[in-house]
Design brief:
Strand content: 25-35%
Shape: globular
Radius of gyration: 21 Å
Number of helices: 5
Low-confidence stretches: 236-287, 297-323
Number of strands: 14
Structural class: alpha/beta
Helix content: 10-25%
Mean pLDDT: 75
Order of helices and strands: EEHEHEHHEEEEHEEEEEE
Length: 323
């Protein structure tokens, strides 16, 4: 996840651009909507802590994977959001390549080099996390003219993914493949859809008529049918108070945003200097999300701060030790 946001001190009128990379590592190899939700919530906690503000809106750009982002469970999760308005935009098929892939390559290349040089034994996700936290942690600040940019990279260990969530057991929404934009409206199992996305000034502010109305259809309200009784408030397991939730379980460090490239596959069996590629590309991949976050202003009539976020889930690479 690559997050872009601006920070401004109370006594300073100049804003600092922060490039904040968040990489999640998990032992869980099931890449589904439940894993996406868990990582997304942990990432939003970090953003809130760094910015010191409550998030008002989240704008996401991602691919159309039904298991992770564009399916009935994902839509249920979006509709159950109350305190934060979620916009999710979907790239066209095969057009979702982004900086998240580069972040994953940095991690995998670092682990690959450690194993083939016999400097490290990496047997599980915890080992990957520890190695990356030890070797890749740094913060870089660059001043260009009157502007200042801070680049950070951060690792979190994702665990405890909850999948027994009856409140997300809903019927399939017809016409899902044709949709390229959805948004929450603060009502359980109701949300709005659009066949095309638009971010003209009127659509961004939510006032006036869309400048691209000739191409973009208006928002349409959709309803999801719950397949069984949840036994309580359907949103009880969804809402997270980002100011109150304890984040002590999230181990993280800031890192600079350097680039890297990996040749070949990246899952390794290592014994001394001997290595063997064992990556199953169908089971090990990096779902990613591109997100913009809007913060409400806390300085009277000052301009609202907009945050541009990049979400990338680097699931457990499941490094195995060759015995």
């Amino acid at each position: 996840m690559m997050i872009y946001y601006k920070m401004k001190d109370e006594e300073d009128t100049k804003e600092t651009l922060v490039k904040h990379a968040i990489i999640g590592i998990s032992e869980d190899n099931k890449h589904d909507a439940d894993a996406v939700l868990q990582f997304e919530d942990q990432a939003l906690q970090i953003v809130v802590k760094e910015a010191g503000m409550q998030i008002k809106e989240v704008h996401q750009w991602t691919d159309g994977c039904a298991a992770q982002y564009k399916g009935k469970k994902s839509f249920a999760d979006i509709s159950l959001r109350k305190t934060t308005t979620v916009y999710r935009n979907f790239f066209e098929t095969s057009q979702g390549k982004n900086v998240c892939d580069g972040l994953g390559a940095i991690v995998k290349n670092a682990c690959y080099q450690a194993v083939i040089s016999s400097k490290k034994i990496i047997a599980n996700a915890q080992d990957v996390f520890d190695h990356c936290e030890e070797k890749l942690t740094s913060v870089k600040s660059v001043t260009e003219g009157e502007g200042k940019t801070v680049s950070k990279r951060q690792f979190i260990l994702v665990s405890g993914i909850k999948r027994d969530r009856p409140e997300t057991k809903v019927d399939t929404l017809k016409g899902t493949r044709k949709l390229h934009s959805v948004r929450s409206i603060g009502q359980n199992y109701k949300f709005q859809t659009r066949k095309l996305s638009c971010y003209c000034l009127f659509c961004l502010d939510g006032n006036g008529q869309c400048q691209n109305a000739e191409y973009c259809q208006p928002w349409e309200e959709q309803s999801l049918r719950l397949l069984q009784d949840t036994g309580g408030d359907p949103a009880s397991n969804m809402e997270i108070d980002h100011h109150q939730q304890d984040s002590d379980g999230i181990r993280s460090e800031g890192l600079n945003n350097q680039q890297s490239y990996v040749n070949g596959t990246n899952n390794i069996v290592g014994n001394g200097s001997h290595t063997e590629n064992v990556l199953d590309s169908e089971k090990h991949f990096q779902p990613s999300m591109f997100v913009a976050v809007k913060f409400p202003s806390q300085r009277g009539n000052s301009v609202t701060i907009y945050t541009l976020d990049k979400f990338s889930i680097l699931m457990a690479m499941n490094f195995l030790l060759n015995t």
